[in-house]
Amino acid sequence: MIACGQFALLLAFFLSGYAVFADIAGSWRREAGLIKSARNATWATLLCLTVAMAALWVLLIGSDFSVVYVAENTSLHLPLAYKFSALWAGAAGSLLFWLWLQVGFGVIAWCIGERHNRIFAARARAIVNFVSMFFLLIMINDRNPFETSPSPLAEGQGLNPLLQHPAMVLHPPILFVGYAAFLVPFAWAYAWLKEPAGLAPMLKAARNWTLVAWLFLTAGIVLGAWWAYEELGWGGYWAWDPVENASLLPWLTSTALLHCFRLYKTRSGVAVWTMVLGILTFSLCIFGRFLTKYGLVSSVHAFPDPGLGILYMVLLVLLWVVAGVLIAMKYLGRKESVEPAAPAHRYVVYNNWLLVALTFVILVGTLFPFLTQVAIRIVNAVSTTPASIAPVTLEPSFFTRITAPGGLLLLFFIGACPHLIRRGVSVHWRVMAGVACLAAAAIVWLRTCGLDAPRPEGFAAVMGWWAQWLLSGEPQVPYFILCGYVFVNLIADLAGRTAGRGLRWYGARIVHFGVAMMFIGIAGSGGYGVETAVAMTEGQKITIQNALAETEGKKTAIPNYELTFDKLQGDHGPNYTAATAVISVSKDGKPVTTLRPAKAVYSPSGKAISEIDVRRTLAGDLYLAVTDVNVSARMINLRVMVKPLINWIWIGSGFMAIGTLMVIGAVLKPKQKAGVQSAEAAP
Amino acid sequence: MKALVLVKWVIGIAAIGGGLTFFMVQAMQSSWSYYYTVDEFVSGSEKIRNAPVRLAGKVKPGTAVKDMQTLRLTFTLAGKEAEIPVAYTGIVPDNFAEDIEVVVQGRLEPSGTFKADSVMTRCESKYKAKVE
Question: What is the pLDDT of residues A506-536, one digit of tens each?
Fold first, then answer.
């Protein structure tokens, strides 16, 4: 079985290498025979990878601990579902799974029924196989899932109980489907660079792929956030950790890419944007993998183990060089001109710039420790005095503050652009309302800005002071204002003209509705959330406002819950013992609910995990976590959080998913209504 | 003509990029902390020791004390050679334990104790089973 898997990987490497050669040679020399054999080779690669995956599954489920990967990620008594999902639990297996998905998508995109343009498909397929080669190189030599250990253990190391949660089982594969699927638009972009007109017949397909990939990426990110909120007990869902940012960056560029399809015309500026964003998105997927696995930046999620991870960067650089050469050949050699853009295009372009700016800001922030390290090395190499600073890490507050204005602008675009694209800037109530909302948001923001420091002297210092003052504003109410603007626009859309409506029209609006809901949830829970920690003994009663007054010294508008620590009871499960604090919650004297946060100790490892309990309402969550228990003294340390409006994040993401499915469903229909719906690509 | 368009592009990007960079730098001001190991920090200069920093080290076995009444955690953060006492009031991650790697963020107090604003542990996607 092990040998079978090893051999399958090796064979896949050679097959994909051959396929690259055959596709490039075949498309260059227009030889159908070569292209056909490349197609077959790609099929064969997929078959080999399937065999490898099946072999790994057999080893995992059979608990063959002579294989290092199996020993590291499973244990004998691990429930079967988790042995199965261990395929993607570790680096080596997840790489195999990701690659299998990529080649699978490549086969679906370009090996099944590419009637339109075999040469165009051949070029795109070459890219897929090229990427496969690198992945396989890394896998075979460095992260081999079939590596055996010279001294096999009798028992595996098992899976951290924190990860034994449905969301954590689904989160990696869903993300990988998204990442892998973005290879398709990426490869298409390269084929387009060689032959722009070739994309036109496949535009719908390209749009579909991007939609599906985007849906999976969004779902994967939200699942991760949901798990963090439920399982980790710190009451948050996003920490701007490098691994999290690595998934957000391609999400931002792919959102821009999605909107480009709407106004795509070959040889137009938007077409260039489409290709650039397509290339950028998958590049960010790979770069994200490199960032976290290669240990470029330390993260609580990253387990740096450099090895051959540098090959990811080599792959990226090679691919960009190829793209650069193709672009140079196209635009500099033959002096091809770009068609003048229709006025409507500019709004898509503004949107793209905004999303790219956000991507840039988050990327720089994430890489900042690495960049400062590089700067230090340069300074040390160049000057005689050693640099007096150390690598710098940026706190999450950097990210929240720098992205806050961007989010407001995004909401403005969501509300205004559909109208602007159709009618342009005019004295229309939608435009007026948009400007008014922006102005109102700005006024509220400025009123909440506050800075203790006195204004300094000197131009640069004053500029800095103003910037700090601006950055200190509270964004909650501005966000509510702009979300309201989006809602008003959506309602007006519903009430307005009925011509040209279809599944796609409704779907797009539902997605944007979901986005606005998410922002309401984010602003509410982030801006008005409170948290405190208290020590309680059995029978003790506290009110949240009092607890907050002691620790934070500020008044808040949240409901004043009264928490009574009724009793501490012991629970047992199949593999854990838990101390559960039974807490009665009441508001204004009326009992509301009973929550049972617990601290559970899992038997194989002896690790203690805090099992939170939450009271969820649309208005917000009351979130309790037991951080410490002293059984003999009947005392607990309780973390209490109130998170207003947080459930709108999950509800909003649900709407986003539903809306996206509707748009995908519409785009899958064979015939499209001409005119109002998407622009057809003109060759 | 083409040169003019190019110049407009360059100026536009420079202006936006410049503005963006300026704001980013400003946003970084109160959000950044230097990242040191315990050894580097303890043997570092005055300036280093007075700045907000993140320190990486291990929780020295036998030194972690949690007072449940005051919710205060004290422990010694150990590097390869140097060590530093840390005091922290607040939320401690579930997997905080002795002899593990942690990153603390905060400032050194005049008393010589490092006052931590946050304590971070590694998210363990795999853990090593206790050696029996």
Answer: 999 999 999 999 999 999 988 888 888 888 8
Kindly list the distances between the CA atom of residue A609 and the CA atoms of A328, A604, A625, in Å, as whole numbers in the listed order: 56, 13, 10
The DSSP output letter for A165 is S
Backbone angles phi, psi at A385, to 5 degrees: -85, 130
pLDDT (average), residues A193-222: 85
Structure token digits, residue A135 = 């992945």
| Average of per-residue pLDDT across A624-648 | 89
Nearest to A492 by CA among A407, A419, A412: A419
Tokens 């896998």 belong to which residue?
Answer: A139
A-chain CB neighbours of B31 within 8 Å are 394-398, 401
Q: What is the pLDDT of residue B44?
A: 77
| Residue A260 · residue A189 · CB < 8 Å | no
Indicate if the alpha-carbon torsion angle A56, A62, A66, A70 is positive or negative: positive
Distance from CA of A655 to the nearest CA of B (A): 30
- Are A281 and A250 in contact by the 8 Å Cβ rule? The answer is yes
ipTM at complex level? 0.80
Residue range A633-637: mean pLDDT, rounded: 87
Mean pLDDT, chain B, rounded, equals: 80
Q: Report how far apart, in Å, the C-alpha atoms of A187 and of each of A46, A113, A208, A319, A461 are.
A: 17, 17, 15, 10, 48
Determine how many CB atoms are found less than 10 A away from the CB of residue A313.
15
Of residues A678 and A125, more confidence is placed in A125
Cβ(A600)–Cβ(A584) below 8 Å: no
DSSP A640: E
Q: Do B68 and A535 touch (CB under 8 A)?
A: yes
Q: Is there a contact between B27 and A610 if contact means CB atoms under 8 Å apart?
A: no
**Stated pTM of the model:** 0.89
Q: Which residues contact B1 (CB under 8 A, 6 or more apart)?
A: none
Task: Enumerate residues 345 to 404 of chain A having a beta carbon within 8 A of any beta carbon in chain B.
Answer: 353, 357, 360-361, 364-365, 368-369, 388-398, 401-402
Q: What residues contact A359, with CB distance under 8 A and at least 6 apart?
A: A249, A252, A253, A284
